[in-house]
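Here we describe the complex-level prediction in full. Unlike the single-chain runs in Section 2.1, the two entities below were treated as one system.
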Amino acid sequence: MGKTAELLPGTLDMLILKAVSLEPLHGYGVLQRIQQISGDALEIPQGSLYPALYRLEHQELIAAEWGVSENNRRAKYYTLTGAGRRRLREETAGWNRLASAITAALNTTPGEV
Amino acid sequence: MLKRLRSLFRALKSRRDFEQGMTEELRFHIEQYTDDLVRSGVPSREAARRARIEFGSLNSVEEECREARGLRPVDELLRQLRHAARLLRKTPQFTAAALATLAVCIGANLTIFAAVDSVLLRPLPFPEAGRLVTIFNTYPKAGVDRDGSSIANYYERRGRIPAFSGVAIYRYGTAVLGEAGATERERIARVSPDFFSTLGTGPAMGRSFTDEETSPQTDKVAILTDACWRQHFHADPHVIGRQLRVDGIGNTVVGVLPPGFRFLSSEARVYFPFSSSPEDRGSAQRHSGGNSKHMIARLKPGATFEQAQAQIDAQNATLEAYDPMAKMLADAGFRSVVAPLHADHVQSIRSALLWTQAGAFALLLIGAVNLTNLLLIRASSRVKEIAVRQALGASRLHVIGEAIVETTLLTLAGGLLGLAAGAGGIRLLSAFGADRLPLGSHIAFDARLASIAVLGAMAMGLALAVPIAWFNLRGHVTGAIQSETRGGTTSRAAQSLRHGFIVAQIALATVLLSGAGLLGLSLERAMAVSPGFRPDHVLTAQISVPWNKYSSWPARLAFNDRLLKEISRQPGASAAGVVNNVPLSGNSGKSAATVKGHVRRPGESARGNYSYGVDGDYFAAMGFSLLEGRFLTADDSRRSSRVCVVDEDFARYYWPHGSALGQHLFAGGEATTDAQAFTVVGVVGAVKQAGLTDQAAQGAVYYPYALRTDDGLFLVVRTSLRPELLGPALQKLVRQIDPELPVNDLRSMDTRIADSLVAQRAPAMLAGIFSLIAVLLVAVGTYGVLSYAVVQRRREIGVRMALGARPDQIRSQFLALALRLLVAGEILGMAGAWLTGRAMRTLLFQVPPLHVATFAAAAAVIGVVSLVACLLPSRRAARISPMEAMADL
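The structure predicted for the assembly as a whole is:
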């Protein structure tokens, strides 16, 4: 495992939405997928994953359905809802704006001031 | 928001599924992770351990998940509810006492509120009912405060008062409906064509009356109420155009009213046109309203009462300018008054109702205070538990929440019982005759009342929680723990609060009891008033004799004759007479009489006197006393002799120094020709006319039946048997004379008098019931608090007894405490009772607002009850054994 970064507050929800937008996932799958798509750079505290999932389900941004896992066990699969898709779009756009603004700010050289 | 509620609701609905699913999901996660670790080479035991550690505490994750679904507050509430219910079950005596108190107090308030709501608060069942007004004539200086409106008034006003969008006139009556042999007497109303449009609610089927239908030749049309349509026509949808026999004559049905149509307190089942002749509408009849014809009107949108009043006044002034009686009218202080229809209709019972509600509310306060004290005592027994829990980290909010949940659970349960009690109470109200009061039969128990009860119970729960929460949070935690273990006394503040509540309770109960005493005494004094005649052993009944069958006075007198003759043959009947209206019926009419030779003093107007037409041995039957001369006889009626009898008030007013006998008077406001004069042949004792509590001695004139043009017919029979026993015979007898004439309103005169006091009796009885409950509550409250004080001070008493205090010293110490509270409470109560008495002066009859004997009796009752309630705990205190009390340490 390489270097990991602390998760910024509020970004877990966004990552969960992104993960389940790719394909329906169970909780453990969400965790693995986030680590995979972030190139193992993000450390997700396992205990905080489920409250976040339940909160998103409560807000009807994701929907849950019981299904069968790859090793033939009953597991709860999450999918993105329409509202979730919209939210993900908004959050992605917002994040991009924020990230480019911060990057621009950090790249400023003395001559540009 | 809606989404979240939906999600919360789903989670609640399948709460068990939710929990199972969550457990399974989390376990799946940990097991998957363990498997992955094993696959990457970690030994299986170590893998399981690491998976669990990395996941964190399963319990707190689950709790966070529940919170994420919004379940936490619900869980907390359910937990507290279960806790509160468990506590209440653990103290069944307390719970039963509290629930009983709540049920009675809330039930009493609901009952009275149901009446206040239906009679005073709810608008009349017409669109924009607030714009409906009534208009009546008043001649205050002639002794006639209220005289309805005349037909002439109606025709002069309709369409001519810009502030009104509609004016209508009506009068109530009775009619015999149906074919001969199957007739039924029904209450009816005669109304002008614009009556329904003025109210804003017209026939649901068919049409209203037209102007063409207002002459006696063309008025044979009828509009049925829904109930009558169902009963007489079996809800025939093609009833319009069918015939309805009324007083033996065919009438065409032109309309059917919607179900639930009800005008004020009217029981009318069929409406007919108010027909009149051109003479009736003429200006000469402008002031012949009498008590039977009433006017209503609807204010135009934007128009005010003041505008309407000003326009009526202006019109009256214009008309008066051409009125030959103008001077007399001015002398009599004539005016036409515009008053809101609803308020005017219920005015007579408004203050009695509001005072009864105040009494019920006082009872509720007493109950609430009582309950607070019991709850405080109960809280003190748990003070240690709560202190420990607070020390262990229970938040203040949690303690407050717990108090609220507990009291609200209690008050809601009590409120539900109160609903049942209220439903019973409303039945009790009608047993007291409340349904005979204005709008009284509208009193009903409905969803609106139930929701008010539930809301009220919740508000009461919140209010009760305040002192309990305060008590539980007060002071330092450590102090509380210590004080209840060793210190021996609780905080003085809590004790003063309890004592303060006892004082308040005693004060309120004293006020309530005194108020009830004043009302009861008023009722007793009103009942003790002699009506001026002998009402015992008198049976009365009303018979309405239709004009179309008995169309001349001789025919009507012949009917009277035959009726009286048959009656006098009945066993037990000693005298029988006929009168157009019995006294105390509530609608005795006044009309003017002019005494020949009487010169009016400046400003003195013609006087309105009660006037009656009598036939047969009316005076003997009713038990009048004869002061001078003779009674009128059947013979006077038969020959239509122009003689009359006056009462002593009349005689005293006109002939203060001489005899009334042989004097002459004219019926009406003017002296006319001598041929029209009546000769006074007798003077009888004055009787109460409108009600037993009448103060004014207005005077009365009795004319031979046929000469008083009022066709009402009351039969009055004096019997040596119980009057009610004569009823069936009387009905049979009338049927024999004419099978189409039903007898109604069959009541003994004693019953009539009792019924006439219903507006006084119902509040007095209710206040009496409330006081009884209040006294019981005071007993329970005092007993509870004193008992607790004894338990609380066991150790102190034990120590003192061990040091040589005698039992009677201990006993008197507690009695002295009780006495102090009692005296403080009663002093406050007396002050309150005096203020209350003054404020409800208008309800009192011959009782001063400050009636010392009543107040003293109230104070004595409360005093005795609360002292007796203290005796038991004080004696228990005196019996405490030092050894036992000290062993408790």
